[in-house]
């Protein structure tokens, strides 16, 4: 069951809550023990899946000192090669990580960054692949992933509509359709200010591309992912760390600590439950309140043959009498038998 959560059928099922993915990224700080502990934390928090990134620095960039190879923002001034060397999840860890996640009962998958990473993940029977936002334009990598036949989740940070369409077309050309393909709305800002989250684009993507759509979030806190669930996100991916104070957590400033991840899991499911099913009429919770709706009541004692007027019948709470829509209709009707004030009006009272 846990590895079917990436299928289109599961993600499109309105009876299933959104999938919560704990993204480890490089927050293990180069420690296998921390990586295993992050799996434990994700499982304990109730996350549906834990995700890694599979690459080696030389397969993702060049060992170069040029200004184009320097990072800005959160990692300002660091060389790309050095950042990726620090943040990589070594290939030799993967077998242990996948085994440990499966022992803990949590789905595990990864984002490959080159064909050798895909080949490694195939040996580990990964249930799905994620294409990271920067790799959305790497049609060769997408093609290699698509050939596995596994579910593919494409992150769309920075992408134009045309670039998203091109990536989907690559998969469609190989598979004949977009079964088990989903998109993640993403803002590739680290961290992403809440006012830049642009969640309306997620809604547009779901309509425009006709595939399940979720959110890969880099904003602080829970507001953005919870809002995304309210807008229909079927998958929420959030970076996790053991502690944001850990210098080894390279993505710490936009990651959730274990208790926050647990809150995300709980609250995302509560928000999903709150969405309901758009059925009109009283819900089970409202059943007891029905008796307090307005209806027509006699507000004066009346004798047999008396005529109903606005001074003798009013629309008041509770229910039990005729619907208020009948008030004008019964004006002037005669009373069949004596009634007391506080009696609900019924047709049997009227001649």
TrEMBL record:
InterPro entries, sorted: AFP_Neu5c_C_sf, Aldolase_TIM, PseI-like, PseI/NeuA/B-like_N, Pseudaminic_synth_PseI, SAF, SAF_AFP_Neu5Ac, SAF_PseI/NeuA/NeuB
PROSITE patterns (alphabetical): AFP_LIKE (PS50844)
GO biological process terms, semicolon-separated: carbohydrate biosynthetic process
AFP-like domain location: 295-351
Pfam families documented for this protein: NeuB, SAF
GO MF term list: N-acylneuraminate-9-phosphate synthase activity
Highest taxon of source: Bacteria
Record-linked PANTHER family: N-ACETYLNEURAMINATE SYNTHASE, PSEUDAMINIC ACID SYNTHASE
Protein name, per record: N-acetylneuraminate synthase
